[in-house]
């Protein structure tokens, strides 16, 4: 890879890791908004705020897969896992240290906000690994099947499928480990998956524009990947 492609790869990897780490830092807060849906009417949407940055990770891996290939995409996924585990270690150590009497944040508040439960992190990491590797594999399956054509198909097909696996896996594990009650499972599964389907459709023009300008900048033909 030349210097320009190296720099771009690092930027994309940085966005991926920042999105992933932020998901695990903020996921304990749940929000609700009232929306109107066709054939349903008024509907109260409930979900973790960790859902907001997470779809960005799939957009980034799809861009990396398209431009740099499967190997580089899998490397970013692995780097994201290592970064998340490192973040967890830092939080655990910070949580164990006793706050001073004048600290703006006391021990109880810090533990409540950042004291990620082992069960929740385990569920998140397992779902992350399963979904991200499936996303990369599915993306390249559709790319090979269509001979590099129909970017919209592999972007949506890989993301929607892998995001459903991710949503189902993390919620199932959280309920199984008693972090969430089972009565919340169907609602959160439906809300999370529908949000991710919407995002997958929404990011289609984004990935087209991003890959177009990246290829133009790097001198790549349509469907061509960076070598090295």
Please name the defining characteristics of this protein.
about 230 residues, mainly alpha, globular
Helicity, as a percent range: over 70%
What is the CA-CA span between the terminal residues?
5 Å
SSE pattern, N- to C-terminal:
HEEHHHHHHH
Report the uncertain regions. Answer: none
Q: How many whole angstroms does the radius of gyration measure? A: 19 Å
The SS-based structural class is mainly alpha
β-strand percent reads 5-15%
Shape: globular
How are the strands of the largest sheet arranged? 1-2
What is the average of the pLDDT values? 83
- Number of DSSP helices? 8
Q: What layout of secondary structure does this protein have?
A:
Elements (H helix, E strand, L loop, with lengths): L2 H24 L3 E8 L3 E8 L5 H15 L1 H27 L10 H8 L3 H28 L5 H26 L8 H18 L1 H15 L10
Antiparallel strand pairs: 1-2
Care to give the gist of this entry?
Strands 1-2 form a two-stranded antiparallel sheet.
Notes on the protein architecture:
- With 228 residues, this protein is mostly helical.
- The chain is built from 8 helices and 2 strands; from the N terminus they run H-E-E-H-H-H-H-H-H-H.
- It has a two-stranded antiparallel ribbon with strand order 1-2.
- A hairpin with a 3-residue loop joins strand 1 and strand 2 (41-48).
- The protein is globular and about 60 Å long.
- The model has no long low-confidence stretch (mean pLDDT 83).
